[in-house]
Amino acid sequence: MTDGVPDAEATRDALRRLAGTAADTARPPDLGDLRHRARRRRVRSVAVAGLVAAAMAAIPVGVAVTAAPSRAPQLAAPAPTAPAAPTPVPSPPRPSDLPSSTTASAPATETGGPIQPATEPTVGTREVKLFLLREQAGQRCPQVVAVKRDVPARGVAKEALRALLDGPTPADRAAGLTSAFDGDAHRFRYLKLDGSNARADFTDLDGVLAPDDSCEKTKLLEPMRRTLEQFGWIEQARFSIRGDQRAFYVDVLHERVPE
After folding, report:
1. Residue 143: beta bridge partners?
2. DSSP state of 115
3. 8-state DSSP, 220
4. Whole-angstrom Cα distance, residue 127 to residue 72?
5. Of the residues 92, 134, 148, 170, which has the maximum number of CB atoms within 10 A of its CB?
6. Angle at Cα 128 formed by Cα 186 and Cα 114, nearest 5°?
7. 125-149 pLDDT, tens per residue?
8. CB of 153 within 8 A of CB of 127?
């Protein structure tokens, strides 16, 4: 430049630079350069994905990543209502639940059979005979004698046998009467009728007689047999221990079982 006027060389350089810039702008983009830039973008994307995967792997197993809870109030679901229980319908009474007439049928024993005929009275009390013992001078075994006693009319034969097993009253003892039984009604199990035959069953008769007592028939069998056979509807009375007649006749009375 001379005196503020640019020289010709500087002007030409400036023009060449402008021409080169315009030429570069007019040229199409280089494909190689574009591929290079695309590869750099993929590398950066893969790197970012790797960082995200590493961060997720660092979270402990079982820890759930949840979004922040909403501030909107949560309404509780209504509790299920249990269905109403159906109203029970009463069943009709069974025939066995209905009251029966006292004259319709005979009452039953523990074994389910009748204990007296249906024609026998079942209300109030009845006077019966109990058979006790009286010692006889010069005789090994005592005499069997009858006394009178009032017992319930319902199941009269069974009640008479229970009264015999309870033993003599103070008045009986004052009259010189005794018995092999004394408070032994708890040994009695049931009285069973089979037509005109009766069988009385016991839990046991242990200790009723002394081991050396030889008057078993007089002291045990006769009082019980006569007490039951006083009723016209019992022709033969038999006895057993827990259902076994042999246990009574053979083990207690030391005789064979009657036919």
Report:
1. 134
2. S
3. I
4. 94
5. 134
6. 65
7. 999 999 999 999 999 999 999 999 9
8. no
More confident residue, 140 or 47: 140
Query: What is each CA distance from 205 to 86, 100, 159, 167, 185, in whole angstroms?
Result: 56, 36, 19, 14, 11
Exposure class string for 184-198: b at 16+ Cβ within 10 A, else e: beebbbbbbbeeeeb
SS3 assignment, position 222 = helix
Tokens of 163: 């009264």
CA proximity to 130, closest of 210, 185, 197? 185
Strand 125-134 to 236-241 pairing: unpaired
- As a whole number of angstroms, the distance between CA 16 and CA 122 comes to 150
Return the residue matching tokens 């950066």: 44
Over the chain, what is the mean pLDDT? 77
Considering only CA atoms, which of 177, 238, 164 is closest in space to residue 208? 164
- Dist. CA 235–CA 173, nearest whole Å: 30
Handedness of CA 151, 143, 171, 162 (dihedral sign): negative
In one letter, which amino acid is 70? S
Contacts of 168 (CB under 8 A, 6+ apart): 132, 177, 178, 179, 182
- Asked if pLDDT for residue 124 goes beyond 80, the answer is yes
146: left (phi over 0), alpha (psi -120 to 50) or beta: beta
Q: Which of 172, 148, 153 is nearest to 227 (CA)?
A: 148
